[in-house]
Design brief:
8 helices, Arc Repressor Mutant, subunit A, alpha/beta, Rossmann fold, 4-stranded antiparallel beta sheet
């Protein structure tokens, strides 16, 4: 059972999500706007947040930005805006998934399960890894501490979203290997990921931006996927 915070200014939407979530045994708390959501997150603990974008008082992007200042609770964005710009903005803020309205409540619950499985498996995997797993490229110009989940570029620490870290570390550990889109989605997002390849491409764009000059290491393989080159 998960504790789910549903944030949407439409009562009907919140009611539908609550109905399906409670049917599957989850506990649901509702918020009608971004300000209320931030307050609830400061004063309580949730396993996952389902967050609308277009809301009064404080929009979903701003609410997500505030929540990420003090919490890494998984967030699924639920929005009528499906443009690439909005998705890039959302993923850049650290959301875990993006669902476009109109949506299937059943699929939304499957996405909740998928996100929670990835989060839980990532935590278990990190605890099993040995200490001081560091990879350096280009004479140390690009340095990644996989254990601490810290990346340095030319000595300066770079902040990434949780999924950017996952994608970067996986490609880094499998450098010089051609990785298909399907392989990356399966290994980084999980075998039961319910999104599409555009989610991967969006995160590649964000990762390249974060890496700056070292984005050259990420090579696009037309019709296949990507390869991270480096010794």
């Amino acid at each position: 059972m998960y504790k789910i915070l549903v944030v949407d200014d439409e009562v009907r939407i919140r009611s539908i999500i609550r109905k399906y979530a409670e049917f599957e045994g989850h506990e649901v708390t509702e918020a009608g706007d971004g300000m209320e959501a931030v307050t609830l997150c400061r004063n309580g603990s949730y396993d996952i947040i389902i967050l609308d974008i277009m809301m009064p008082e404080l929009d979903g992007f701003s609410a997500c930005r505030e929540i990420r200042k003090f919490s890494q609770t998984p967030i699924i964005v639920l929005s009528a805006r499906g443009e690439e710009y909005d998705k890039i903005n959302a993923f850049g803020l650290g959301v875990d998934d993006y669902v476009v309205k109109p949506f299937s409540p059943k699929e939304l619950m499957m996405r909740v399960d998928a996100v929670m499985k990835r989060v839980n498996s990532r935590g278990a995997a990190v605890s099993d890894k040995p200490k001081n797993r560091v990879i350096e490229l280009d004479g140390g110009g690009l340095r990644a501490d996989l254990t601490a989940r810290i990346v340095y570029i030319d000595g300066k620490r770079v902040d990434m979203s949780p999924k950017e870290y996952d994608l970067f570390f996986y490609m880094l550990e499998n450098r010089n290997i051609a990785l298909s889109r399907e392989k990356l989605l399966c290994e980084v997002w999980g075998y039961d990921f319910y999104g599409d390849a555009r989610t991967l491409d969006t995160h590649i764009k964000l990762l390249r931006k974060s890496l700056g000059d070292y984005a050259r290491y990420i090579v696009t393989l037309r019709g296949v996927g990507y390869r991270f080159e480096g010794e």
